[in-house]
Specification:
Layout (H helix, E strand, L loop, with lengths): L7 E2 L6 E2 L5 E3 L14 H4 E3 L3 E4 L3 E10 L8 E9 L1 H9 L6 H4 L3 E5 L13 E5 L8 E4 L5 H8 L3 H11 L5
Length: 173
Amino acid sequence: MSEIEQGYFCKICGEHHEELPMSYGSPVPDYCEDIPEEEWESRIEMNEDLCIVDDEHFFIRGAIEIPVTDDEGPFIWDIWVSLSESNFELTTEYWATEGRERKLDPMFGWLSTSIPCYPETLELKTMVHTRSVGMRPFIELEPTSHPMAIEQRNGITMDRIKKIAEELCQPDE
């Protein structure tokens, strides 16, 4: 463990928490949030990793992993990415196949989660890298000047992770 003071100050409860979260996630693609809740059952087919909306929008849950430069890592954003229908079908065809990571090439996708603590992340270009059964895909951001893409390439510090925790724990105004 590094010399950096661990934990963060939560602005909601007013207390210091010893453990710093190393992962945050989104339960649904942002696209779903525009659908009235009473229509979800008829329009959304979903499990923990896959989502289809209106039989025409296809999403997969994956992990944006960011190296931690001054401690153990990675820091992970658990997010959703849209896929073309054909790539979604290919993904589901190999979903339970051992060795699927060797059979499926990386697939293009659009980031479908608005991630706090960054300029808008919706519709950033990504490559979805299938991993072994039981592991969510690794999501590689297009190497642009977007701060999240830079962090994925260069890594972040524990101080940055602490700032993220403090920002995400702000009370709603």
